[in-house]
Amino acid sequence: MPDIDPAAAERHRAKMANRKRVQDEEVASKTREKGLLIVHTGPGKGKSTAAFGLALRTLGRGGSVGVVQFIKGAWETGERTALETFGDRVSWHTMGEGFTWETQDLSRDVAAAERAWSRAEELMADPRFGLVILDELNIALRYDYLDTATVVGALAGRREGLHVVVTGRNARPAMIEAADLVTEMALVKHHFAAGVKAQPGIEF
Amino acid sequence: MPDIDPAAAERHRAKMANRKRVQDEEVASKTREKGLLIVHTGPGKGKSTAAFGLALRTLGRGGSVGVVQFIKGAWETGERTALETFGDRVSWHTMGEGFTWETQDLSRDVAAAERAWSRAEELMADPRFGLVILDELNIALRYDYLDTATVVGALAGRREGLHVVVTGRNARPAMIEAADLVTEMALVKHHFAAGVKAQPGIEF
């Protein structure tokens, strides 16, 4: 351990004591419980991954989780396999037909998005689920596969206590407006730029 | 389903076919496999949660995961409980003594960080682990509880094939420099501002 100057230690203690007071006051001022609409957007990595991390958190607390994948059916197989360990406490629905540039068929994409949205509505109505993840819903809205006003209206009117996580780049302004918590994942640096390929356990 | 104009459908098809060509070329150009140093930083939510989502991905692929929590020992209990489902494929070490403003004791914080770093070195050396999560390590570096050059040097010299995720705000420039993938989580909107409190399954 490095030598610590007693004066520095005391400054640290005083600073942290003050920080703790501010923190405690802040925590005490938050009193409402509320099912949250959480949005993970932006061009960076981690939008879906953080949603599945929240699933883990809910499962660890004894809750159940519904997942609807709107677009990228071929992806996230690692998470799906791992979450299957939790049996019927995870209800996973891969409704998308792969990336939009794979299908190249607009009416097929629209039909798939509509089926996915119906499934999402079922899961959101089912009181068994404390958390519903609508993975890549933002993409379906961005391409107008679904009507934004209808979808955001249904999310805003979700049953009390239900947490919903919506992922995908380019979240619509109405979605941001309706959300309680919005995180934008920004890409600072990416290994693909150095020629490194997608690897199991990391990208899927 | 809305009526789709055939010309619009064809424009969509042509655009997506072109997108797929670009995508396929890009994927073909990535040929290297490499254990990645991944950094989740920034003031937004989801840094640790996305790291635990990656743990899920690794577990779903049959791998094992090591976790060292450098700072916030009292947090992330939901994830920990859920990951315990995977038995000895998850090795979880809570080494921090809570938030820095809880301990108010610099030498205790430094000692805790040093113990955590020793544990991190053990896990990184153990070939059983495909992924090691160093949760809130950036905080320990920011407060100079650990020497940045020593830590970043050890991370850069990690064994081949090992993925490491480092989380926490205010990542040091040397950490960003050494990383393969850096995501900055930006806070767009937070429900605490609306007086909503930390809730199980979401914040912990």
TrEMBL record, chains A, B:
Gene Ontology MF terms in the entry: ATP binding; corrinoid adenosyltransferase activity
Record's catalysed reaction(s): 2 cob(II)alamin + reduced [electron-transfer flavoprotein] + 2 ATP = 2 adenosylcob(III)alamin + 2 triphosphate + oxidized [electron-transfer flavoprotein] + 3 H(+); 2 cob(II)yrinate a,c diamide + reduced [electron-transfer flavoprotein] + 2 ATP = 2 adenosylcob(III)yrinate a,c-diamide + 2 triphosphate + oxidized [electron-transfer flavoprotein] + 3 H(+)
EC category: transferase
One example of a Gene Ontology biological process annotation: cobalamin biosynthetic process
Chain spans, region Disordered: 1-26
Keywords in alphabetical order: ATP-binding, Cobalamin biosynthesis, Cytoplasm, Nucleotide-binding, Porphyrin biosynthesis, Transferase
Localisation: Cytoplasm
Pathway info: Cofactor biosynthesis; adenosylcobalamin biosynthesis; adenosylcobalamin from cob(II)yrinate a,c-diamide: step 2/7
Lineage: superkingdom: Bacteria
GO annotations of cellular component type: cytoplasm
PANTHER family from the UniProt entry: CORRINOID ADENOSYLTRANSFERASE (PTHR46638:SF1)
Function: Required for both de novo synthesis of the corrin ring for the assimilation of exogenous corrinoids. Participates in the adenosylation of a variety of incomplete and complete corrinoids.
Protein name: Corrinoid adenosyltransferase
